Amino acid sequence: MFISNDIKYIGVNDHALDLFEGQYIVPNGMAYNSYAIIDEKIAIMDSVDKNFGEEWLANIENVLGDRQPDYLVVQHMEPDHSANIVSFVEKYPDAKIVASSKAFTMMKNFFGTDYADKQVVVSQGDTLLLGEHTLTFITAPMVHWPEVIMTYDNKDKVLFSADAFGKFGALDVEEDWACEARRYYFGIVGKYGVQVQTVLKKAQNLDIQTICPLHGPVLNDNLEYYINLYDTWSSYKVEEEGVMIAYTSVYGNTKKAVELLADKLRANGAKKVVVNDLAREDMAEVVEDAFRYDKLVLATTTYNADIFPFMREFINHLTERNFQNRTVAFIENGSWAPVAAKVMKEMLSKCKNIEYTDTVVKIVSALNKDSEAQLDKLAYELCGVSDNNGGESKMKYVCDVCGWEYDVEAGSPENGIAPGTAFEDLPEDFVCPLCGVGKEEFSKAD
Ligand code: FEO
After folding, report:
1. SS3 at position 122
2. Does ligand 1 lie within 6 Å of residue 76's CB atom?
3. Which residue has its alpha carbon closest to ligand 1 atom 3?
């Protein structure tokens, strides 16, 4: 992988890992990135996971030949990057270690020594001259641990961004960046949006042409795309219009309601509808979706006078990551004393700027006409169209054969269809009053 004439990739791919950080599935493995900056002086940027120490040291030798590194820059002390500091020092005893003071405290805790005779302690704005390259350090506390620094190389205009801009997945697997970067971001750094915003502001005046993160690919084109996504994620803004329905279902009745709601949402023009079964989907994937879209529907059963465990776990994931700025709706199910909606709302009570729908769907054991009508109301509310009994619906449908238009707001009183009747609620034998074709010949108008 080419980064620049002087900056070489010396990281490793891990395809043996079952759970990253003990909890995240990584179907396409993981990369632990490390880089060598080769100038009059040589700096190695971070180490790699403990299982890859020999491979990493061999990578260093391969790119340096007979030369020896002068510095090991430790940007982050989490063991996926720091585990081989001890073996590096054994192999290169003359090299200095460059890190924040908090990182040296952590070295003492992890390794029993803070390498007092090798320390170069750096803080915000400090520089390290390698020759043509000058490294400037940017403190980045809580992105993702308190000791983290990032590093800017002024010659090649490279930002070494520590965990930021990283993703799950090894580098020898081709995959979309955003999906696994979003799952990684909200899983690992999501709580620390304020701190990410602070670092983005510190970096905004740098001329950055390449981002070298500690995980995932080196980014060197269309950097605005990645930086804008990080800005959106860390400021908890909506990334995309859509409704995400997260549910649990014990015997399938809540699932049936969720599937019906999803159909109704689509029929009422929802741009995107995503349905996730919390007992079966990867939890980190569902958390990511909750932060991606603007509307969230939580559907679950009352369970032990509380809510079903997977839903409790899911909401805890959201609240501990400062879930905010979204519309939330509830569907509760209970056979004798439903309390799920109340419990879910209480759990979200500390979240900022949450708008709740007026409609709360209550299912008593299984769907019936009442709860189906509530699903209709909820779909209308989430899609911004009014219900059948009320006022205006914005939806229109056009007969593909003759162009006659069915306007939900107006209905078709001359044909016995009341104003506000949703297209899906038209009788099965409804035909176009102009040319006589059936409902299947109609399309939603733009
Ligand atoms: Fe990749 Fe926070 O460690």
Report:
1. coil
2. yes
3. 78
Confidence (pLDDT) at 422: 83
Is 301 in a helix, a strand, or coil? strand
Measured CA to CA in angstroms, residue 156 lies from 5, 45, 208 at distances of 9, 15, 9
Q: Encode pLDDT of 166-216 as tens digits.
A: 999 999 999 999 999 999 999 999 999 999 999 999 999 999 999 999 999
Q: What is the pTM of this model?
A: 0.86
Q: Of 279, 346, 289, which Cα lies nearest the Cα of 313?
A: 279
**Residue-wise burial string across 63-99, b where 16 or more C-beta atoms lie within 10 A, e elsewhere:** bbeeeebbbbbbbbbbebbbbbbbebbeebeebbbbb
Decide: 81 in ligand 1 pocket, CB within 6 A.
yes
Contact predicate 389/372, CB 8 Å: no
- Please give the number of the atom of ligand 1 that sits closest to the Cα of 166: 1
Nearest in space to 89 (alpha carbons), one of 67, 111, 105, 106: 111
**Local structure of 185: helix, strand or coil:** helix
